[in-house]
Amino acid sequence: MATKSISRKAFHYVNEMFALGARSLKATLQASMLRTALVTCTDFRPLLSSLHETALECMPVQATISGGLAPTGWDSPAIVHNLYSATLCSNLSNSQQAKVLPIISKFRSSPFGRLQNSLYCALVESAEIEWIELLGRRIATLCPETDFVPHEIAWWFAWHLKAASPSIRVIMLRTVSNSWATSHRVEQCRSSCCVFGCGLVHPLLDTIPKDNLQHYLRCPILWKIVRQLVGEDAPSVPFDLLCLSPRYGDFRPVALAHCIYHGIRLGSGGVPGGPRDRAQMAHVVNTAIDVARVAFLDMN
């Protein structure tokens, strides 16, 4: 999940809501440092005092005045300084401190097990929920022709997703957050044409189809391959394909389209920049069909 497509706070929410099993590296490091300061290395303060004295004696005055305790060029503060900062919770936001400080106080009065896990959960829960607002912005871009209410589509999406496997959940979250590895998103300075060759099939279109998710939710070549395997019942409206309403709840078509696209875009069967002639296009389409068959078997 690219950070440009979904914020860290929103990811915390969907991670817990859809049980993706991912963990926040930042929250893990914060919880680990707090647990170390409270349980493992509780006698670090004398070392911190010695470090202060050494810094005053050996380092330039300008560096010590600004609070520096390590030589210029070091990539991180001293460990004892990090431990001290952790006990003060100085690197946490106000909402995080409100969750973490009671746990620390409780532990100091009556130590208990699984301290780090308790701290991690508190750090994650304190993140603001941005998912509904973010989903609304992404769907407004992907499905501009459809009117919707953000909290309603979030509810239906979550309701449909409960029955999906973890891999399908990740694919669908990547899709509704516009996180496919298209050149439009990954290589923002250079957007290629449709990797399946739509520009060759429909050369008179006002705009040549670009390598972006808005197009692939409607790409006639891609969806012809998908429907040959999942059936013609798959809706033609992208809003319904994304399972954002009660009308449709099958994630397989979008998941299969995701696998086909990335198999071509990131595999050896694609043509950089998109097919330039009919022969290249035929090769890409045949490769896409092979990728689709394998992916469809894996889903069933």
Structural notes for this entry:
The structure is a single chain. The mean pLDDT is 82. α6 (94-109) runs antiparallel to α7 (115-125), α14 (220-230) packs parallel to α17 and α16 crosses α17 (278-299). The protein is mainly alpha-helical. Helix content is 60%, strand content 0%. The two termini are 25 Å apart. It is built from 17 helices and no strands.
Supply Rg: 26 Å
Mean pLDDT: 82
- Structural class, from secondary structure content? mainly alpha
The termini sit apart by 25 Å
Shape designation: elongated
Question: What's the gist of this structure?
Answer:
The protein has helices at residues 8-17, 25-40, 45-58, 61-65, 79-88, 94-109, 115-125, 131-142, 150-161, 166-176, 183-186, 198-201, 213-216, 220-230, 238-241, 252-265, 278-299. By secondary structure, it is mostly helical.
Task: Give the helix/strand layout.
Elements: H1 8-17, H2 25-40, H3 45-58, H4 61-65, H5 79-88, H6 94-109, H7 115-125, H8 131-142, H9 150-161, H10 166-176, H11 183-186, H12 198-201, H13 213-216, H14 220-230, H15 238-241, H16 252-265, H17 278-299
Helix pairs in contact: 2-5, 2-7, 6-7, 8-9, 10-16, 14-16, 14-17, 16-17
